[in-house]
From TrEMBL, chains A, B:
Record GO terms (molecular function): ligase activity
NCBIfam families given in the database record: PRK13679.1
Active site feature: H34, H116
Lineage summary: Bacteria, Bacillati, Bacillota, Bacilli, Bacillales
Similarity-based family: Belongs to the 2H phosphoesterase superfamily. YjcG family.
Organism of this sequence: Caldalkalibacillus uzonensis
Name under which the protein is recorded: Putative phosphoesterase J2S00_002524
Enzyme class: hydrolase
UniProt short sequence motif HXTX 2, positions renumbered to this chain: 116-119
EC code(s) of this entry: 3.1.-.-
Keywords tagged on the record: Hydrolase, Ligase
Length: 172, 172
């Protein structure tokens, strides 16, 4: 099965991201706006309990993480992806590392970790340029504290369902 | 904010449900296939911690629930909804009651609790009749054990995001 790990920003930020995604992201309906902390990876279903056990431990050992969205940016020319950029935060980077550390979770990164919320993808060069040109003039400043991450699995229609949420720190 | 509580069946059952939903359910892309155990209800955001606390207690006090899908059925003429019917299971009914008990969660039921997974809705009488006529000849028998439920919240675009999963029994 195909798994992924993500943080959902608060509802109001998801609503803002969706106002762009519905126009600029053809994959809009497959998942809610999110910060990917581990890209899609393939595991045998019987590895799931071990992964869950590890994620519980990681979550417990990780304090809630303050996150700050500070601008609109893009991955052009690598990828015509438009996104809300999140300030580098050592605790988020540390969490990302922990989710790639043990043998079970060692998967190749396609790209270096740049935390972001995608608001557009598969855009033409022209469209990306136009939209980015307009949005970069606006202020996108939002702060929130990530208190949990989600382990997701992908269905055949490419949508993602949450398998389990993991609360950061000793909240339980 | 608008909340709801649901159980997701295992991936293979979600995939089967989606094979019908993509044709017969215009609300297909808003949520993964699920069993609603508490219909959408409106709460003030500051009530969320108290609700979560209560749900944790309920989950801990509820053993995993064996569920059995046994046929295709429909709610016509009340509603042109086509669904996978789930055998009445006292532990599921008890969970449903607990999620409507305390003052905070006392909301009117629109309908009596008939556990089901919707696979079609907003169908015309003719379409419902045709599709049901074809599907009722087929066998739909699946068993699984519900080990968790999900607290969801609705975004402005009417999609649902998981807020937190609650594991049944002492699994944690």
């Amino acid at each position: 099965m195909k798994l992924g790990i993500a943080i959902y920003p608060p509802k109001d930020i998801q609503d803002i991201a969706n106002s762009f995604r519905k126009r600029y992201d053809p994959r809009y309906s497959l998942i809610a706006p999110h910060i990917t902390i581990k890209e899609a990876f393939e595991v045998a279903e019987d590895q799931l309990p071990e992964i869950v056990q590890y994620l519980r431990q990681v979550a417990q050992d990780t304090e809630p993480i303050p996150l700050h969205i500070y601008k609109v940016s893009h991955f052009h020319p690598t990828n015509n992806v438009l996104y809300l950029a999140i300030k580098e935060e050592p605790r988020l980077t540390a969490l990302h590392h922990k989710l790639h550390e043990p043998p079970l979770l060692k998967h190749e990164h396609k790209y270096p970790f740049v935390p972001h919320i995608t608001i557009g993808q598969e855009m033409s060069d022209d469209e990306l340029h136009d939209v980015y040109g307009r949005l970069r003039m606006k202020s996108f400043e939002f702060s929130f504290t990530a208190t949990r991450f989600h382990l997701l699995y992908q269905l055949e229609n490419e949508t993602w369902t949450t398998y389990e949420t993991f609360l950061l720190g000793q909240q339980g």
